Amino acid sequence: MNKTVQVKGLDIGLDRPKICVPLVGRTTDELVIASKKITTYDIDLVEWRVDFFQEVEQLDQVKKTLVKLRSVISKVPILFTFRTAKEGGEKAISDEYYLELNKEIMQTGQIDLVDIELYTPAPIREQLLKKAQLYDVKTIVSNHDFDKTPPKEEIIARLQQAEVLGADISKIAVMPNKPHDVLTLLSATEEMHRIHTNIPIITMAMGGMGLISRLSGELFGSCLTFAAVDQTSAPGQVSVNELLPILNIINKNIGN
Ligand SMILES: O=C1C[C@@](O)(C(=O)O)C[C@@H](O)[C@@H]1O
C-alpha cells in the first residue's frame, strides 16, 4: 500500500500534515509580492488560486505570471487550482477554457500539482487526468460543498470516486452547520484512510466550526492542510504561525 505521493522531494502522506498556502492575488505584482513573503515562512507547498487572477482568461498572461512565480517559489511544489464558481471559486469559465487552461499550464513544466474538480464533465476530466500523467504533474481530484456536510457514506463515496478515476490525491471540503457535521467529516476521514483508500486524502470542514479538522489531520488521516500568510482562500483557514505549533505538538505526542 503506498499512501504517499512524492513531489519535488516532498513526501505527501507521511507524518505531520503538509502546510499549503494559497496565493490569491488579483494582479501579477500582487502575486509576486505575496509569493516573496510566503516563501519566508516554514511551509510545504504553495497553491496558486488562479481564479482570483484578473487576467485568468488570457492564457499568455497566466503563463508569464507563472514563470515569475516559479522563479520566486523555487524550493516548494506549486499546486495550480482554478476553483470554479459552482464549487466556491471566484469566477465561472466555460468547460472548454477550463480544459485549455489546465492542459496548457501542465505542459509548461512549471507546476508540480494540479487540482481537477471531481464534477468536471467526464470527457474533460479524463483528458486532464491523462495529460497530467503525460507531463508528470500530480493530481488532486477535489470536491467542495459550501452549504452542508453530506452523510459519511457520501463523503467516502466521493473520495473513492476520485481514486477510481486515477487521482494521486483525493480531496473534499464540506461546510458544517452543527458540531456533529464536523464529527461526520472526521469519521469519514478516519474510515477512508484506515480501510478504503490506497492514496493520500485531504479533508476539511470549513468555517470556524470546522477548525479542528484543519489541525487534526495526523490523527484522522488527512495529509495536507491549507493555512494563510495574509489572505485566506476559504472560510476557517488560520495563519501559518498559529497552525504550525499545533501541528508540531500533535506530531510530537501522537505516538506516546
Ligand atoms: O480546495 C481547497 C481547500 C480550501 O477550500 C480550504 O477549505 O482550505 C482552500 C482552497 O484554496 C483549496 O483549493
TrEMBL record:
Q: What is the lineage of its organism?
A: Bacteria, Bacillati, Bacillota, Bacilli, Bacillales
So where's the catalytic machinery, residue-wise?
144 (proton donor/acceptor), 171 (schiff-base intermediate with substrate)
* An individual GO BP term: aromatic amino acid family biosynthetic process
Pfam families xrefs = DHquinase_I
Q: Pathway it acts in?
A: Metabolic intermediate biosynthesis; chorismate biosynthesis; chorismate from D-erythrose 4-phosphate and phosphoenolpyruvate: step 3/7
Query: Which keywords does this chain's UniProt record carry?
Result: Amino-acid biosynthesis, Aromatic amino acid biosynthesis, Lyase, Schiff base
Q: Which Gene3D superfamilies match?
A: Aldolase class I
- Specify the enzyme's EC class, one word: lyase
Family, similarity comment? Belongs to the type-I 3-dehydroquinase family.
The source organism is Natronobacillus azotifigens
Q: Name one GO molecular function term.
A: 3-dehydroquinate dehydratase activity
Q: What is its EC number?
A: 4.2.1.10
Under the heading SUPFAM superfamilies, the entry gives:
Aldolase
What does the function comment of this entry state? Involved in the third step of the chorismate pathway, which leads to the biosynthesis of aromatic amino acids. Catalyzes the cis-dehydration of 3-dehydroquinate (DHQ) and introduces the first double bond of the aromatic ring to yield 3-dehydroshikimate.
Q: What is its quaternary makeup?
A: Homodimer.
Q: Which reaction does it catalyse?
A: 3-dehydroquinate = 3-dehydroshikimate + H2O
Residues annotated to bind 3-dehydroquinate: 47-49, 83, 214, 233, 237
Q: Which InterPro entries match?
A: Aldolase_TIM, DHquinase_I, Type-I_3-dehydroquinase
Specify the protein name. Answer: 3-dehydroquinate dehydratase
